[in-house]
Specification:
By secondary structure, the chain is an alpha+beta fold. The protein is built from five helices and six strands, in the order ααααββββαββ. The chain has helices spanning 7-17, 26-30, 43-48, 60-67, 118-131; strands spanning 77-79, 84-95, 98-106, 109-114, 145-151, 161-167. The chain has a six-stranded antiparallel β-sheet. It starts with 6 loop residues before the first helix and ends in a 20-residue tail after the last strand.
C-alpha cells in the first residue's frame, strides 16, 4: 500500500472538524523553552546568608554588578578602616530575619544595614534562627563562612546594625574588582 503525504493534511483537517482530539506533548507545540527571566537573582541573598561557594567569592562583586547593574555600579557611600562600600537597592532584600534596602560590602563580609540597635537586631536574628530549625545552618556555616552581627560605628551608621556573612579566606577581597583598579595602590 502506497502512502501519500498529500492526504495526511486532509485527514487531519477532517478529524479536527469532527471534533477529534489528539494527545500532543507540550514540547512539540511550544518549541524551545523560554529564556531565563532577567532581573535580580538570589546571588545577593546567597551572599548575605553564607550560601556562596568559596570558589565563587572572588568574582562576587562583578556578578552582583552584572545581575543588578543599577544597584551595584555606584556606591552610596564609601568608608575606610575597614574599607566598606554602602549600596542602596531598588527593593529591600531579606536575610536572617531582617529586611533592608542597604547592603554593605567589606573585604570579607556581605551585610545588611538594618535600622535597629544591636540588641533588637540580635533578638530578631535569634527569632529567625529559631523559626528556621527545619533548615539547619550547618549547610551554610563552616570554617569559611560565619554569621556576624555588630553595631554600625561609622558616620551615618550609628544606632544601626550590620547583619550578614563573613567569608574567612586568606587574601580575599570582595571589594577587589578590575573595574575598580583605581582603588588599589600600584607598587
Amino acid at each position: 500500500m502506497r502512502r501519500s503525504s498529500k492526504a495526511l493534511p486532509l485527514v487531519l483537517a477532517a478529524l479536527w472538524l469532527a471534533g477529534a482530539t489528539f494527545p500532543v506533548s507540550a514540547q512539540s507545540v511550544a518549541g524551545p523553552p523560554p529564556a531565563p527571566a532577567t532581573g535580580p537573582t538570589d546571588t545577593l541573598r546567597d551572599a548575605l546568608t553564607c550560601r556562596t561557594a568559596t570558589a565563587d567569592l572572588p568574582a562576587l562583586l562583578q556578578r552582583l554588578r552584572r545581575e543588578r547593574p543599577l544597584e551595584f555600579i555606584q556606591t552610596e557611600r564609601q568608608y575606610s578602616a575597614p574599607m566598606m562600600d554602602l549600596y542602596r537597592l531598588d527593593a529591600p532584600v531579606e536575610a536572617w530575619g531582617h529586611r533592608s534596602d542597604a547592603v554593605v560590602i567589606t573585604d570579607n563580609r556581605v551585610l545588611l544595614l538594618v535600622d535597629s540597635p544591636i540588641e533588637q537586631a540580635s533578638a530578631q536574628l535569634e527569632r529567625a534562627l529559631e523559626e528556621s530549625r527545619d533548615a539547619p545552618l550547618s549547610a551554610a556555616l563552616d570554617d569559611a563562612h560565619a554569621l556576624v552581627v555588630y553595631p554600625g560605628e561609622h558616620p551615618g551608621l550609628q544606632g544601626r546594625s550590620l547583619v550578614g556573612c563573613e567569608y574567612r579566606m586568606p587574601a580575599l577581597s570582595l571589594l577587589a574588582d578590575p573595574a575598580d583598579a583605581w582603588r588599589t595602590p600600584t607598587p
